[in-house]
Amino acid sequence: MTAPIVIHWFRQDLRLSDNPALTAACEAGRVILLYILNEGEPGARQLGAASKNWLHYSLKALNESLRGNLLIRRGDPSEIIRTLVQETGATGIFWNRCYEPWRIKHDASLKSALERSGVTAKSFNGSLLWEPWQVEKPDGTPYKVFTPFYRKGCLQAPEPRKPLPVPEPMQLHHVSTKDELCVDDLNLLDCRPWSMRLSDHWQHGEQAAQNRLYAFLENGLINYKDGRNFPALAHTSRLSPHLHFGEISPNQIWWALAIHEATGDIDHFRCELGWREFSYSLLFHNPTLPKVNLNPKFDSFPWAVEDQRLQAWQKGQTGVPIVDAGMRELWQTGYMHNRLRMIVGSFLVKNLLLDWRLGEAWFWDCLVDADLANNAASWQWIAGCGADAAPYFRIFNPVIQGEKFDAHGEYTRRFLPELRDLPERYLFKPWEAPKHILQDAGITLGETYPLPLVDLKKSREEALRAFEQTK
Ligand code: FAD
User: Fold this and answer.
1) In Å, how far from its chain's centre is CA 147?
2) How close is the Cα of 286 to the center of ligand 1, in Å?
């Protein structure tokens, strides 16, 4: 008897190992390996340019590891899956769950439609250590503060699942079709120069994610707790885009760390994975998180009117060096170190008084790790309106932040070559440098490098007054 035909639907799980839905599909029968690009979904957030760029290369890597057997479609997943089921006689469909609100809605209605027509539909947890509904307070309500969420919720819940191997054997069912698509047909690459250059900074796909994890475990983990604050050092894993696209699972990272227990700051690193879980829990319980202040007191906050200062921030032309270095790292590489994300975020929201949603949207377009849950939760945290948020009076001083976390200016000079020859003493506040020092460094403020957009002291005081009302 031939095995039944089933479909594995790849989404944010672009890997073969530790893929619970793929493993279940392979156990159930001959598998059709499907990817659907769905643009224009009602209520959905469209992929940003940097995410599309990553997705292009990630799909190529996945298809290569599947020896060209990835069936690519474009359009409404419900329609595509229904048609494919009719054409092939597939009896089951398997996928790993996604947590974007519009996907939760879509998946629920797809599942019941398939089941009504006699097709088995099974979904799995392939991207979180714990499901959002698994980690709740004893009274059944969601946690709003990170520490108890992680310590009492996550760490007291059953241990995360151990990673699964690549399913073997993988019996495939080939679909011959007249409208075959390849990755290039999806037109994910944007031909603007900034976008074209992103891929120079990254290796994509499952193997690259594993390589990055093991390089980090060997060299970065040892001093993670302190080192993670210094953007010039390689003490962060840079696994975030791999995690977002599911080229690696958090379970693979969690358990790989166990082997390195003796060598580094594994608890601290696991705790950062806990922040990711917290963001997903917040999004799950507050589906409007990317748009609506968690704290309603912020609904009447007097945000400044959007003006050309937003473009100056986006392009790394604020005249405040550490802010500009962070924004240019983002623009050039599709990534920004976490310390910088906090500095540039605080500057936008608290020194420029611009609405956090403007920053969230820019990050969404430019980050290769743009992630609905992490991005929205972090921006709300920065603005002070989120769960367990930074208190309103915590306003990062970008000069002190630069002096403390990039003391020798290595990171700042890398992204601001026009300030390369400025001595450390003035690197983070060129406006205070004497004329002859600027001259020797080849800098004319307002010409070769901008004057600061705002006076840091005055804008801080204004912010404190504005934020007082949210107390
Ligand atoms: P590591 O320090 O190596 O941490 C390992 C993993 O833990 C990360 O890959 C990430 O999955 C998770 N993690 C670490 N810190 C956080 C955090 N604060 N919140 C949630 N998860 C965390 N992260 C995203 O993945 N996508 C985003 O769109 C995103 N937007 C952000 C916006 C702002 C304003 C801020 C302040 C932070 C944002 N972050 C976002 C969180 C964090 O900055 C990144 O996850 C981290 O910098 C990624 O680098 P890494 O993989 O080297 O991190």
Assistant:
1) 21
2) 20
Which residue(s) pair with 74 in the sheet? 37
What's the pTM value of the predicted model, to 2 decimals? 0.97
Alpha carbons 132 and 130: distance in angstroms, whole number = 6
Query: Count of CB atoms within 10 A of residue 177's CB?
Result: 11
Q: Residue written as tokens 């912020």?
A: 298
- For ligand 1, whether the C-beta of 378 sits within 6 Å is yes
Tens digits of pLDDT across the chain (471 residues): 789 999 999 999 999 999 999 999 999 999 999 999 998 887 899 999 999 999 999 999 999 999 999 999 999 999 999 999 999 999 999 999 999 999 999 999 999 999 999 999 999 999 999 999 999 999 999 999 999 999 999 999 999 999 999 999 899 999 877 778 999 999 999 888 888 889 999 999 999 999 999 999 999 998 899 999 999 999 999 999 999 999 999 999 999 998 877 666 899 999 999 999 999 999 999 999 999 999 999 999 999 998 899 999 999 999 999 999 999 999 999 999 999 999 999 999 999 999 999 999 999 999 999 999 999 999 999 999 998 877 878 899 999 999 999 999 999 999 999 999 999 999 999 999 999 999 999 999 999 999 999 999 999 999 999 988 777
Cα–Cα distance measured from residue 153 to residue 172, given in angstroms and rounded to the nearest whole number: 40
Is residue 401 lining ligand 1, measured as CB closer than 6 Å? no
Return the amino acid letter for 348.
L
Residue nearest (by alpha carbon) to ligand 1 atom 6:
273
Given the structure tokens 């760390």, which residue do they identify?
Answer: 257
Active-site residue set: 272, 275, 303, 338, 356, 379
Segments in 316-454 forming alpha helices (H): 321-333, 338-346, 356-366, 372-383, 398-405, 410-415, 424-427, 435-440
User: What are phi and psi for residue 10, nearest 5 degrees?
Assistant: -75, 135
Q: How far is the CA of 369 from the centre of ligand 1 (A)?
A: 8
